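FORM 12-B: Structure-to-Sequence Request
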């Protein structure tokens, strides 16, 4: 069966490649395979990794204890146990996130999920994959929920179940431009509700979004999930906006 499919698939693949050649999601240049950046964009990506806070993933100044926490997490522990992202938000990573809103969604989401799983560590056996929900109004306008598209691919690649409707957004989040971190956090508290507490109770949750900015959104979601009885919540995003002074763009 697979041999037959391969015979059909390869000429078809050739036709697709001629009509719609794979393009770099960072700059639009034609590249020689799907799911990759061109060499120039690849060198501009800022990979995130140790030394970093064991909880929120913020860069730490010195290599040391893998369990070390940043000052913010020590002072005010977040409702999630871990947050990880493979890349800093900016440059080609930002272009990819924006491209997901417009086209070739499946292939971009597949590429994002693969990068995310490389930094996810061991995903608990009982984990559920849950996307940060879009507000219905935004869902209607954009036609789909980016986080759900990525979450579907994370579920497929990790072999863990997807629970797409675990959370709902109960009120639109007003613009947070220009607000302080604390004000943004106040802004999103109460914006989310757990729609499937029965399915969440006692389980680990991997919360998925495209970009983590201040962490206010994922914190609000994680707090609600914990309140509904989730055993623990880990956050996994494709990119992470770096705060000033932490070396990011
Ligand atoms: Zn490129
Ligand atoms: Zn931290």
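FORM 12-B RESPONSE
SEQUENCE OUT:
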């Amino acid at each position: 069966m697979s041999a037959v499919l391969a015979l059909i698939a390869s000429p078809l693949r050739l036709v697709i490649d001629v009509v719609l050649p794979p393009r770099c999601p960072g700059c639009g240049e034609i590249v020689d395979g799907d799911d990759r950046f061109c060499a120039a964009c690849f060198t501009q990506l800022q990979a995130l990794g140790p030394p970093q806070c064991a909880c929120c993933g913020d860069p730490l100044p010195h290599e040391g204890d893998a369990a070390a926490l940043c000052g913010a997490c020590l002072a005010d522990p977040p409702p999630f146990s871990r947050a990880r992202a493979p890349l800093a938000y900016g440059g080609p990573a930002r272009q990819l996130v924006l491209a997901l809103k417009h086209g070739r969604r499946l292939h971009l989401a597949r590429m994002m999920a693969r990068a995310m799983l490389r930094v996810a560590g061991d995903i608990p056996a009982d984990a559920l994959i849950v996307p940060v929900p879009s507000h219905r109004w935004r869902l209607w306008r954009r036609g789909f929920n980016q986080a759900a598209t990525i979450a579907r691919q994370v579920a497929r690649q990790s072999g863990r179940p997807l629970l797409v409707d675990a959370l709902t957004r109960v009120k639109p989040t007003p613009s947070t431009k220009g607000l302080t971190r604390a004000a943004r956090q106040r802004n999103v508290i109460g914006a989310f509700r757990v729609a499937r507490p029965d399915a969440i109770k006692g389980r680990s949750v991997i919360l998925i979004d495209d970009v983590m900015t201040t962490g206010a959104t994922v914190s609000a979601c994680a707090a609600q999930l914990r309140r509904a009885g989730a055993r623990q919540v880990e956050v996994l995003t494709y990119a992470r906006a770096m705060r000033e002074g932490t070396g990011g763009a």
